[in-house]
Amino acid sequence: MIAYFPTPHPDELWYSVGARFSDRMQFGTETGTMQALYGSRHAIATVDLPHRLGALVSQLPPGHPCTVDAIIDQYTFLPYYSPFLTTSTYAKVRDWMGASTKASVRVKCGACTNRVRPPKYFRSCPECDRENREKIGETYWRRLFQVPGVEACPIHKVFLEPSDIRLDPLNNLHKYFSAQKAHLGTRVHRINPEDPAHRILLDLARRVDWLFHREHLNPGLDFLHEQYTPALASNGFATRAGSVRMDDLRRHVLGFYGHKLLELLQCSLPDHKGDGWLGHLLRKPNTAVAPLRHLLLLGALEVDLERFFYPTRFEAPSQSEPVPPGPWPCLNPVCEDRGKSSIDQAVVQPPDINGNQHRIIRCRRCGFAYQMREGTKTPTRANHVLDYGPIWKSTLRQQWADSSIALRRMAKTLGVAPKTVKQRAVELGLQFPRKGKRPTTKSGLYVAKPRDMSKSLEEHRRAWVGLRSKMLVAGTTELRSHRPALYAWLYRNDRVWLTENKPGRKEPRGARSHIDWAKRDEELVGQIATIAAHIKNRPGMPRRVTVTAIGRALGKQSLFEAALAKLPLTRCVITSVVESGEDFAVRRVHTAARRLRLTEGAFARWKLVRAAGLHHHLERQPKVRSALDYEVRPFANALILRNGDSVPQRLLRL
Q1: Tens digit of pLDDT for each residue in 87-112?
Q2: Based on the number of CB atoms within 10 Å of its own CB, is 354 exposed (0-12), middle (13-18) or buried (19 or more)?
Q3: pLDDT tens digit sequence for 553-595
Q4: Is residue 526 one of the residues assigned to a domain?
Q5: CA atoms within 13 A of residue 180's CA, in its CB half-sphere
Q6: Residue 40: which domain range?
Q7: Does 627 reside within a domain?
Q8: How many CA atoms, within 13 angstroms, populate the side-chain half-sphere of residue 202?
């Protein structure tokens, strides 16, 4: 049980709460805070999406206001990520933050793959720091100010100032650094309201702050893309069918923000070819995209977040008269129930591409079926007939055979236009021309000509084979561009044969690189051994030689993480100099032994194990056990001197 734990301040980062706790407790070791809070010295001081929160809350004193849900919603970055996650991912992330001991929460949220990096240093607002010290006697790390893309304080309208505490990457994963002990910037740079870029950055900070004050906002990715369609269409960047005019949208976003501002926000877009992150956001609904990029797109479209995420709050009441719940009338002119509300059931259809919903109403007596749109009054005439029914068709046959009935009179009786009468007569196979005072012909009608499908099939197949023989090296795309109508006909009518007779898939060409990887490999390979030796021999606590440590020392950590496979010589040398866990433990044993001899002279084995920081699993490894045996071996006729001891004269004479 933790006897004392600080109460979080408004919008305080949970990392900052842990840092204030560490400052007050003054633990003797760096990992003491982790052990006290999370029950494990291997726990990590995560800034944005911490985990193991359930273990921490269980140790808080009774009556403390912090619960797992309160911590997640008020002091972490999850409210910033949650609107842009799937519902299943969001539920899983909340569960992991509370109970899991795995640091995979950031991976699940896409924070490790979205190419928008956190700020390099913790940041603060000079005006907020001054007010905090005056009101509560200390300052703290605010959650909003550590979000990538937030460059200004929305309260005081000043730019944020970096501190001397590293955030990306953290200097020490197992230690908290408080704002109170950090060197914070004090210069005040105010927002210029006349500068468009300044106004955009201030608006972006307000949008992120709005997200932080929404708990459990997770509508799902399907909802987001449904909302994007009308937002894009209202600005002229989407068709009625929902296709996005991506080139126009990209030019608009570039014009709205400018290249320099997008580069500052790590959201650059190509000038000409390619959609960049806009394509991932709009065309790949299941791809993790940084929340900052969603906010930039919504800002360029001038969409209000409240209206975007809560559209039902702003829906105007429908002015149209609601569809009566039934019964509905039969609109067949030759049915006995004509005009009577005798139909009590209707089939509701899914919404069409314009979002309109329809009902299909069918008369049980005559089989006449028509379609009616939701939100309209009950019609007196059928505008969209789906089926005329057997009674209507029988009446048409009878009147068609009676040559004394004129076409227009027949159309009036059946409640349709004369051309519709002729079209239905063709479908029923009635005789043409129809006898009468004025013969009725098929003039003005579209009549599909009968085709010999087998003959047409062979012709199209031969044409495709001939095209392939002329263009032997062409792929499917090139062949299709030469004969689009031929490809479309085969795709619709003979798809299986077309699939079997298409050119094989070509091996993808590697992306054209503008980097001379061979030259870069030669430049780096000579530095690896020197850097590894420097890491091993630097004063202070031993540090393990790893790929990350070498990359960080060279300033090439991101290069090694992303493209080490393109540097074969460098990778080979790195593989030869990196230390395994067992090798690093052996080096710690020898270093600790030298330190103990200087300070204590002779020492016991258990002291060496403690000084080397060996886990009991490592202590049993063969190499480590041999190193321990070597360092604690008995010395015959050996004299161990401590600091300050003088060498006996008898030894000097020897």
Answers
A1: 888 988 898 888 866 656 777 777 76
A2: exposed
A3: 888 888 888 888 888 999 999 999 999 989 999 999 999 998 8
A4: yes
A5: 16
A6: 14-166
A7: no
A8: 17
